[in-house]
Design a protein that fits this description.
Layout (H helix, E strand, L loop, with lengths): L1 H14 L4 H29 L3 H26 L2 H23 L16 H35 L2 H11 L3 H11 L3 H9 L3 H38 L7 H26 L3 H59 L1
């Protein structure tokens, strides 16, 4: 992540596509996001020891307080860059302090023993996790591809409008993650212990929860969503109702795709996930700008919906097939 961020930033500087301020904003935003996977290593260790709640509390405290600090500094200084620099520095200090407080609790727990550091083991782990990493990376690229296309083909105002409409999309993914993240360890154990019926029942149950959450969010979004966003961003978004509803529906696609990725990883079929996202990323790279140039914001919305819908269908089909094969065995 760090290496790719540096390459992108150097490209932005060399190409002169962005102003100095914009390059610095991108740089510090990347620095802020680099803290997430560092914290995630500790959170995963806590979850492995049955205390996902501790990792979640640390993340909530750090990110929540960072955003509050960002808002306060932004109001006082009227500068996104200054607010972002202060937020990033604060967040880095918060990660160090929170991990130093919480990690000693697990010094004698499962995985807490010190077996020494071996470079070969690190590379083995990187190799085993590469499909997961690359899939997540490409998933983020696909989610941002419409924004990149708007950035190159339209003005900053259009980018802002799309950002306003896009902001609630991940609400469904977030709500769904509250349900399936705490049971990931249990799902892994069910698969490992060959408890076929229980595993399949859990999968169906999670898909049902995602469906209900999606329906609920879409209904709320239709009734008050655009009004709330219009007030929040101090602009009239009511003319984008159809695009907004389509984007909300894609949240359901994303949630099912996220669950499918997790489950396919559990059953050690993450190679399928990588293949799907490589094809999808190539499509995003080739056609997203064309869609925006043809139909503006609506083109970006429709292209994103079609692409995420295709990913959802393919990943779900692969998951169902693998579960069916597992049941037969």
């Amino acid at each position: 992540m760090t290496l790719v961020s540096i390459v992108v930033i150097i490209h932005l500087v060399v190409s002169n596509d962005y102003t100095v301020e914009k390059v610095l904003i991108v740089s510090f935003m990347c620095a802020f996001k680099i803290l997430d996977p560092i914290e995630e290593v500790f959170s995963a260790h806590y979850q492995k020891n049955g205390r996902l709640d501790i990792g979640s509390k640390c993340a909530s405290v750090r990110i929540g307080s960072s955003l509050i600090l960002f808002a306060i500094v932004l109001v006082i200084c009227k500068s996104v860059l200054i607010a972002l620099i202060i937020m990033t520095a604060y967040s880095a200090i918060a990660v160090i302090i929170l991990m130093k407080i919480t990690f000693p609790m697990f010094a004698n727990g499962d995985g807490g023993q010190n077996h020494g550091f071996r470079v070969r083991n690190v590379f083995n782990l990187l190799g085993a996790c590469f499909p997961i990493f690359m899939s997540a990376f490409l998933q983020n690229y696909i989610s941002n591809a419409p924004k990149y296309a708007i950035d190159s083909a339209m003005d900053d105002a259009s980018q802002a409008y799309f950002g306003y409409l896009f902001s609630p999309v991940f609400v469904i993914v977030l709500l769904a993650s509250f349900i399936f993240n705490p049971i990931l360890l249990d799902m892994s154990l069910l698969w490992k212990n060959h408890e076929k019926k229980a595993f399949t029942h859990r999968v169906i149950k999670q898909l049902g929860y995602i469906f209900l959450i999606t329906i609920g969010v879409v209904i709320v979004g239709y009734v008050i969503g655009l009004r709330v966003l219009s007030i929040l961003y101090n602009t009239n978004l009511m003319n984008f109702r159809s695009d907004f509803m389509i984007l909300l529906a894609t949240g359901g696609f994303l949630a099912v795709s996220s669950l499918s990725i997790i489950l396919l990883t559990i059953i050690r079929k993450q190679g399928y996930v990588l293949a799907v996202y490589i094809v999808a990323a190539i499509c995003a790279m080739l056609f997203s700008t064309t869609a925006v140039e043809s139909a503006g914001i609506h083109g970006a919305v429709m292209f994103y919906a079609l692409l995420t819908g295709a990913i959802f269908i393919v990943l779900l089909a692969i998951l169902i097939k693998q579960c069916h094969t597992y049941q037969k065995k």
